[in-house]
Amino acid sequence: MASSQKRITKELAEVTSDPPVGIKVSLVDESNVHNWNVILDGPPDSPYAVCLLSHTSSSLANSKLIQGGKFKLLLVLPTEYPFKPPVINFKTRVYHPNITFDDKGSMCIGILKAEAWKPSSKILSVLTATQQLLSEPVPDDALESAIAEKFKSDRKDFNAEAKKYTKQYATGK
Amino acid sequence: MEDERQVELDCISAIFPEIVLDPERPFNAAIELPINPRNPVKVYFPASADGAIQTPFPTPPHSAASGQEEGQATVTITNDIESHNLSYLPSLRLLITLPGGYPATCAPKFELSTAPPWLSRNYLDGLESNGNQMWEEAGRTEIIFGYIDSLQQEAENAFGYGEGKVLEIPQDYKIALLDYDIKATQAAFERETFDCGVCLDPKKGSVCHKMIDCGHVFCVQCLQDFYNNAINEGDLVSVRCLAPDCAKKRADSQSAKHRKPKTQLSPSELLQIPIEHELVTRYVKLKHKAELESDKNTVYCPRKWCQGAARSKKHKKPKGFEIVESDDESDAEEKENGSKFQAGNDLLAVCEDCSFAFCSRCYQGWHGEFTLCAPKPNGELTEEDKASLEYLKLHTTPCPTCAAPAQKTHGCNHMICFKCNSHFCYLCSAWLEPSNPYKHYNMETTGCYMRLWELEAGDGDDVGIGFGGGVAEQPEAEEIEIPEEEELNLGDLADEVIRRLQNAGPGQREELEDAFALALGGGPEAREAFAAVPHGEPIAPAQQELQREGPLVLRINAAPPPPPPAAPAVPDAPQPGRRNGHPRRGNLNHRIDPRLAGIRAAAPMGGVRRAQPARAGRRQEARADARVGAAPQAHGQEQEAAHQAWVQRFVELALNDQEDQLDSDDEEDAAAWEIPVR
Q1: Is B377 exposed, middle or buried (0-12, 13-18, 19+ CB in 10 A)?
Q2: Angle A82-A87-A89 (CA atoms, 0-180°, nearest 5)?
Q3: Over the stretch B83-119, which tens digit does the pLDDT of each residue have?
Q4: CATH number at residue A53
Q5: Which candidate in A6, A98, A102, A145 is best for mutational testing of the B interface (most B CBs within 10 A)?
Q6: Taking CB atoms and an 8 Å limit, are A7 and B200 in contact across chains?
Q7: Taking the model in full, what pTM does it have?
Q8: How many domains does chain A fold into?
Q9: Which of A84, A98, A118 would best serve as a mutation to test chain B binding (most B beta carbons within 10 A)?
Q10: What is the pLDDT of residue B95?
Q11: ipTM
Q12: Residue A14 is part of which domain span?
């Protein structure tokens, strides 16, 4: 599928030349444009960002000291792309109501559903939708009900847990 | 010294390269001034050329329809006048003649015309004399550029017609004007460049297609690739605009008015793209087929080589490329008519393909209204059909709304029906609320708690690990029937067990229970189950034991588990349907006894009865289970008796089970309550 590669190459060029804030993209294997490594920064206003000087500097904590957790994702573009939607999974464990808390890191976002996917939807919109999901969990549409429950009933505890796991896993390694 | 006229014309040709100088007559020139006003011009076409009213009725609708197909002009009809909004009007032709004394002494001669004459002669004369006036006012100097410029400015608002002035054009010129508008619009479109959203390449308008409904533009190549593929795969829903959210937004805005928003492309638009005739024909046929299949009242021709659908007023067989949209109103009407009994009327069906007239109840040649339907002959299924049905049973889950079987290829268990867009669970076929489908997997009370990602790799030998299908039975539409003989066999034996238990005295009863329990291969547990067999009159067994619901997945490919004691399994029978109103006794089968799957597989299948009429309620489904369970087996007599006893218990439970979850419509159907006694 030459046309699919051409389009993917274009989108890759677009995303790498003008990367959106907090999203880094690279190919898993330079010879294959279908598999992308994505590194997503946890949005600064979410528990998926970690404060570097967490214990000492509650008053000093400004934006420079807060750094997003580095979440690795794998984006796989089928050969039928863009006629078929891409598949995206979190490789880094995330404590989040809408992302499975296991080694698969599956999630359900509307744009990726086969019946909602349109060939002119772009990878960039998939990535920003994922980023958006980190900022704004949708507990009513949860995959992890226990986490959703916590998110709804005890936000403080949820944030603490999410932070803990972000520190533990989302190191970008 | 060079002629001043020559200098001026040279200048003008440099400014307007499209000007044509007459080679034979010097100082004669012609120029076409295109008219593309800022705002579209509303043009009225009175019904007849001379203004006399020929007919008191509105203009026939065909003219309106043709306007819409062209998609360029919007049409409204008020009384006997139809109006179109035109973006382009035929150009204004200007002939310039510069006489000898020009510019100092003689006025230039301007001649204006349009073809067809949509501007009146009087008006054009006025414009011409404006030119001379300008020449005078400017002090008798070169005026050609100024005049052309003023005409162009006038054309910007279509000589005043762009701003509310009514332009009335005789019918005679209507076609020419509309044609011009379409061609000019098309030409302008082809000159433009668009970024195709699919291949992301910039493309000339001439190789692009603009969606008629929403105006999104894609290149023809991408549209062809996508729609060809979608139609070939039968993925009709995808034949819509390819822009993200486009169809959805329109669906949202329309949903108030229409229940089913039309987001799919029309066949005529597909042909325009162009998509090949052959594929468009397939598209029309598939759409018709999908409509028939989603209508449970459809009956199919009993001739094996035909299998066409019976003629129906609601879903007309498409001719050519037109799609006859069924409207919901006629649906309601039919229901009203249906309540009145019309002898024979509802039985006679005529195949739309081979014109065979047959009875829609017994599927034999039409026997007239007053003849009883003859018993149905048992059709033989080919090996291939059997294998297909078997596969459907094992690796698909029917939609709870339309019963269309769905097979999961990958992903989570939240499914959306390809046919009717219902949300449902792949594991248990439960209907899921579209607003929050995952709730089903997050509630401990459902059998599918925390099982959203089970079978993520898909269902089927060819797509992933095997899965016993969410529901054991065939969907209602293709219920499998076991020949009568076996049905009686089951009924007799199972009845016998119940009858003996009920008729037995206290002492005898215990003895009998022991005997049956022994036959089942169970111990005291088995006996307990029999204790539930009502004394005397059949009553509901202990309901609280039935509260658990949700099937367990039966992995056919895995090594068969040792058969569990049959009897205790019965009270464990889950109660699906409590939450969704669609009881699925099939789940019980899976849960209760893996052996049954084997039996079912071994069961010879009788004729396939299509399109169960609505009256075939749950009772029939339950009976079907019974028949299925009654299939002959290779085991010994004892085991057979055990199975039959179990099946009878199961039927009874299934029926009682419905008792407390009965929907209002079922209450009218007394038959659904009866325990079948044969």
Answers
A1: exposed
A2: 150
A3: 788 888 888 999 999 888 888 888 888 999 988 888 8
A4: 3.10.110.10
A5: A145
A6: yes
A7: 0.53
A8: 1
A9: A118
A10: 92
A11: 0.75
A12: 2-170
